[in-house]
Write a structure and sequence with these properties.
It is a single chain. The protein has two domains: 161 residues, Glucose-6-phosphate isomerase like protein, domain 1 (Rossmann fold); 179 residues, Rossmann fold. Helices cover 44% and strands 17% of the residues. The strands form three sheets. It has a five-stranded parallel beta sheet with strand order 2-1-3-4-5, sandwiched between helices. The mean pLDDT is 94.
Length: 371
C-alpha cells in the first residue's frame, strides 16, 4: 500500500537493549508458532459458517459486492439531500468506529462550517452514555423536521442506545405526527431482535418509513465499521467504494504468509512476546495528528475487548471441520495488555512524562501522517 510504513526497529534489542526489546533470535523463535496460528485462522475462515459462528465475518467485509455498496450509497445520498442534521445513536464500535472514520476522512470542524461540509448535514453522536444533559441540549436546539436519526444496535437491547432512542423517538412523534418514521433509519440484525421486530410491524405501507440496513451475522461491534459505518461515510460524502478498496488492499497485505512481510502478524507477535516475556503490560497508541485522536480511542476498544480475558479457551472441532470456541471456566488467566489512547504533541506535556521516566512497562506506538 503506497505511503504506508511500519517501523519496528525500536522494539528490537539492538535499539533498546535486551532487557526491553526482542532479539533477532527470539523473533525467529516465535515466528513459526505465530505462522501456525495464522495458517489455522486462514483455514477455518474459508468456511462462512465458521466465520459467522466464531465472530470472524469481519474478514469478509473488504470483499462486499458492488450492489451492497450501491444500496448504502443511495440511502446516504438521499439522507444528505433531505436533512440538515443527522443524529447517530450507538455505543462501542457503533460510536467509536464512526467517530474515528469521520475525524480521519472528513474535514476538521466539520459541523461548524458549511463550506467545509459542502452543504451536507451536520453529524451528532448520542446514545453512548446515560447522561441526559447532552441529549436534552441537543434536541432543544434542533428542528425535528430537518433531522434524521440513525439507530445502530444489533440486538436492540443495548441499554444506552435504546434508552436514548426512546427519548428521541418520542421527540420525533410529538413534532412530526404519523410521518415521524420517515426520519428514522435503523441498522440492526437482519432477522431477529427487538428493533427488527418493530421495523416489521411499523414499516408496512410506507417504504420511506423506518428504513433499515443489516448488521451482518458474525461481525462483532468493534469490527463493524466497514458494515454499519458505511452509511455514515456515505452521508458525509466519502467515497465508500474507495474506502472498501483500501481495506481490501490492506487485507491482502495482511494475508501474506511471509511473517516478515505481514505487518499485522509481526506486530501482534512482537507485542505478545514483549507482554509475556518483557513485562510490557501497557500499550500506548499515540498519533501525532489531531484527526487520528479518535482512532486511538477506537484502538483502545479493539485491543481491550479482544485481548482482555478471564478464562482460557476450549476449542472443539465438530463435523465438517466446524469449530466451537468456549470459555474454559476451569482455567482462570486474567490476561490482557492495557491499551491507552494518547495524542501528540499535546500529551508530550502530560502522560509522556510518565512514559519516559515512569515504570518501564510500556510500548508506545507513534503514528504520523506524511505528505
Amino acid at each position: 500500500m503506497k505511503g504506508l510504513g511500519f517501523d519496528f526497529n525500536n522494539l528490537f534489542s539492538f535499539n533498546v537493549g535486551k532487557e526491553n526489546g526482542i532479539t533477532e533470535r527470539q523473533l525467529d523463535s516465535i515466528a513459526p508458532l505465530a505462522l501456525k496460528g495464522f495458517r489455522h485462522l486462514l483455514k477455518i475462515s474459508k468456511d462462512v459458517r465458521n466465520r459467522r459462528r466464531l465472530g470472524l465475518e469481519w474478514m469478509a467485509l473488504p470483499y462486499q459486492g458492488k450492489d451492497t455498496l450501491l444500496e448504502i450509497k443511495r440511502l446516504g445520498q438521499d439522507i444528505a439531500a433531505n436533512f440538515s442534521e443527522v443524529i447517530f445513536l450507538g455505543i462501542g464500535g457503533s460510536y467509536l468506529g464512526l467517530k474515528a472514520a469521520q475525524d480521519a476522512l472528513g474535514y476538521p470542524y466539520y459541523n461548524e462550517f458549511e463550506r467545509v461540509r459542502n452543504g451536507r448535514p451536520r453529524i451528532y453522536f448520542e446514545g453512548n452514555n446515560l447522561d441526559p444533559n447532552t441529549l436534552s441540549v441537543l434536541l432543544s436546539q434542533l428542528d425535528c423536521r430537518s433531522t434524521c436519526v440513525v439507530v445502530i444496535s444489533k440486538s436492540g437491547k443495548t441499554l444506552e442506545t435504546i434508552a436514548t432512542f426512546s427519548v428521541v423517538d418520542d421527540w420525533l412523534k410529538k413534532g412530526l405526527g404519523p410521518s415521524y418514521g420517515r426520519h428514522i433509519v435503523v441498522i440492526t440484525d437482519p432477522e431477529v431482535g427487538i428493533l427488527r421486530q418493530r421495523l416489521k410491524s411499523l414499516a408496512q405501507g410506507d417504504p420511506l418509513s423506518f428504513r433499515s440496513l443489516p448488521l451482518l451475522q458474525g461481525v462483532g461491534g468493534r469490527f463493524s465499521e466497514f458494515n454499519m459505518g458505511l452509511l455514515h461515510l456515505a452521508i458525509l460524502g466519502v467515497d465508500i467504494e474507495e474506502v472498501i478498496a483500501g481495506a481490501r488492499q490492506m487485507a491482502q497485505r495482511c494475508l501474506s504468509r511471509n511473517f516478515f512481510k505481514n505487518p499485522a502478524l509481526m506486530y501482534a507477535a512482537i507485542m505478545d512476546f514483549l507482554y509475556r516475556k518483557k513485562n510490557k503490560r501497557i500499550s500506548i497508541f499515540m498519533p501525532f495528528s489531531e484527526t487520528l485522536k479518535s482512532t486511538a480511542d477506537w484502538y483502545v476498544q479493539l485491543v481491550a475487548e479482544s485481548l482482555g480475558k478471564k478464562y482460557s479457551r476450549k476449542i472443539k472441532t465438530e463435523k465438517d471441520d466446524l469449530e466451537v470456541w468456549l470459555p474454559d471456566t476451569g482455567r482462570v488467566l486474567n490476561v490482557g495488555i492495557t491499551p491507552i489512547a494518547a495524542r501528540g504533541t499535546n500529551d508530550l506535556h502530560s502522560i509522556h512524562q510518565n512514559n519516559v521516566e515512569g515504570e518501564n512497562n510500556k510500548v508506545v506506538t507513534f503514528v504520523r501522517v506524511e505528505g
